[in-house]
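pinned: reference chain
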Amino acid sequence: MAETKTVCPYCGVGCGVVVESDGARITAVRGDPDHPANRGRLCTKGATLHLSAAPEIARQVRLLQPMHRPRRGAAPQPLPWDDALDLAADRIAQVVRTRGADALGLYVSGQLLTEDYYVFNKLARALLATNQIDSNSRLCMSSAVVGYKTTLGADAPPACYDDLARAHTVFIAGSNTAWAHPILMRRLEDARRDNPRQRWIVADPRRTETAAMADLHLQLLPGTDVALFHGMLHVMLWEGLTDPAFIAAHTAGFETLRDRVREFTPRHVAQLCGLDEADIVQAARWFAGIGEDGSRRPTLSLYCQGLNQSSSGTDKNVALINLHLATGQIGKPGCGPLSLTGQPNAMGGREVGAMATLLPGHRDLADARDRAELAALWGVPDDLPATPGRTAVEMFEAAADGALELLWIVCTNPAQSLPNQAMVRRALERTAFVIVQEAYATAATCAHADLLLPATTWGEKDGTVTNSERRISRVRSVLPPAGQARADWRIARDVGRRLEQRLGHRRADGRTLFAFETPEQVWLEHRATTRGRDLDIGGLTWARLDRDGPQQWPYPEGATAGAARLYADGRFATADGRARFVAPAARALAQPRDARHPFALTTGRLRDQWHGMTRTGTLARLFAHEDEPAIALHPQDIERRGWREGDLVRVISRQGQAVLPLRASASLRPAQAFVAMHWGGEFVGGADGGGVNALTTPARCPQSGQPELKHTAVRVERAALPWQLVAAAWLPAGEMLQARERLRALFGHFGYASCVPFGREPAQRLGLCLRAAAAAPVDAALLADIERVLGLAGPDTLRYADARRGQHRAVRLRRVADAPPEAATLDAMVLAGDTAAAGWMLPLLRDGAPAAGFGSALLGASAVPPRPLASRRVQVCNCFDVDEATIVGVLAGCDGDDARRLVQLQTRLRCGTQCGSCLPALKALVQAHPPAGSRPVTALAA
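pinned: its structure tokens
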């Protein structure tokens, strides 16, 4: 069994993993104890990577060969690689000759490796002479980029992960770190265990798991972050908590900011943000960090999409950084603004300039010297284009307006992830030629492609990535590419070489721009673009990364190690070395609530899923924590309208609509709503609406171009879809995902439909659950199609039908050889029309309990089972499949204070002892269920 060290492909924490493989498949993964980001830990997603890379999954969902649609709407046909590359080059060259390179758009991804990113960026800028290339990092990190550049002079996070343990106060803004970056939460938990005086402040409109663990939760109204930060600075100035010496020596522009925040008194800010005055004052004092002895204790801020995904995203970023500069909380251990990256290599993409407004090596597109320097490095005789390209949303808006002839979409899924999906669909339909370069054939965007190019994915890729703390890690391949898949950089290189022949060389010496044969050669050229820049890695070598492991930048020539922290000398990456205070106004949301749209909808992450779920969505076990799409409202809002949990509601915004089941959540304020960002058309849809991004607004930050995905005004009304269907079945594991795709193809026949897997890999059989609804009973042929997919077409199926009343039920029992007949279990079912019995039949099917004794009740419509059943399992621990009821039952026999009871719980059930992602939930359950007749002795340190 071989072992290989590589990196997790999910969030920007950049965890190291050790992969076990036998040459044919990846057999196991574990956290790399030597990787400084995670020190051996993995979250639920990283811990199941080997399962998502299984060959039986690849056979069902991977794009395994180039494919071409001879016409839109037709089934794609296989195409040899050379023909596919020629076709791509021919179509691109045609656009360049007839309409110019600005009539095409390259849309790339923070999931690419740095080497992939670099070759695409060079192809656009140096060969095609266009800046029409942007990354999906525009959707998650561009406000942080502009915030850093505007205040500190460079896109360079100044702090590091070790500061989590050194901070006295941790200020978390717009991030549910417990779910979005679980390994950093584990490090924070360690820090507060070792230093019980460490304080956590969380600013978030929702009471997330992260907020519930905070010493102070600022549950501000959506979009009021700038007002909060200005109000905190007002308090600091009023109480003399700033650092005047630091401000005078190392910054500029403070007077303008001081005047701006004068009006932001605690009383005024409390009204704007919906907070208590005392909490604003407390947050300011803790952030400033002045101790009883007059010394300043360090404050670290962590922030993510709650600040970034906003029409005032840059303003929010700079307003938070202002607090660090005003108190001198930067450049020293334990303090500084540390933006948390959403994707595994969003930082690497920023390094190579793969966004429409950037150039490689943190160069400025508007600076003629920067452009000339890069042209010289590339050997390009002409000046590089100076006009910024279209940002992500602008690119698709232009395509929807007919301004683009060609889109090349690489390793990203805009038909799920971009806002205003109606516009995105128009863009994909109107663009004359769409190339999709992708690893997964199931991504929604693939359905719109004229040419499909199969790319490698995790386990097959070789190169580097950079995480949130500027740490570069080696990604190593473990297996050969699946099918005919190729590395993304290689595909870009081969198209680039063909374009050179069709369009003419761009190098002065006549040599190819794409003389790359290995990822190392690409990386070395990338390294050359960083020399002398703030991110200089001129002293780092590929061999050093291989031998000594991950390294942080900057790492200039002559250095023996990278820099853990930046700006320790108080000199910033600006022309005069001074940081810049910025004084933004507190602006309103792009779409504030009104009488027609009275709910404030926000989006966010689930604990066990990632982005559009093309990878995590292949694993049934990762749906156990949140098993179906839903919109969450405050219980009062549901009760006031006479609704119930599970009811289908229509959610309507100015952009579009979606139908979703209701869920009650006290984590929200009244008049607020929440839908997880992951629920796209791959898992939920119907003729009456799509996934969550059918609702979201394309309004964007004017400085960064980042859309306001975190807030949309919506109205919610009951969906008039009285005819409903619930179908579920256990299927062979090697067929389940194909069956899901067949059911997904039927979504358009219903007003609402969702299809999610259940079960627990590794297993011989996995389950699928389809829920659907319509205004009237659907055609019998459609029900027959569903039954065929779920294996209910055979003679062993029991049926009941009443066509006049729209009732249809079918069930199949599974009898195990050598077992008595009464041990038979429910194996598949379709309930159509009246689905009340699904409330007990679905658990019966999923749990595999004996079902033969239920007799005719299985074909009945009663909401009450003929005999009592165990209540529905709510999973808490994914690693060991431990549910809430089991935990509560064991807690009843645990004694002592909360900390001791948690240890007893973990000893008996093992929950929370592996990845730790469920620890916040476990601690909440411990506190919520004290020993009988007593109260908790101590509160658990988070």
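why pinned: The chain has a mean pLDDT of 95. Residues 241 and 293 are 13 Å apart (CA to CA).
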